[in-house]
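## retry 2 of 3
previous attempt timed out at serialization; input unchanged, resubmitting
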Amino acid sequence: MRSRFSAFVTGDEDYLLRTWDPLTRPVDLNLEDDSIRFYRLDILDTVDGSPLHDTGVVEFEAFYKGAAVGSQRERSTFSKSNGRWFYSSGELE
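## retry succeeded, writing output
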């Protein structure tokens, strides 16, 4: 989760797509809108996701500022394949 947040902050679309489950991954991303910038990530809850698990859930709040100021809360599901974690889906809260 933290590495994906860092990728959002730096606009690393390639990393985000590489770490997205191929079954739910979009064809492309457009992170060029620089009117807001994410600057802080708080992990609120985790379920599973240890080296012993194949799935995990992370609830987080990401804070942004710029043209708008606020935060986004999401509960994200991750799955592990060949020893690597992939973002599968998320529900905004």
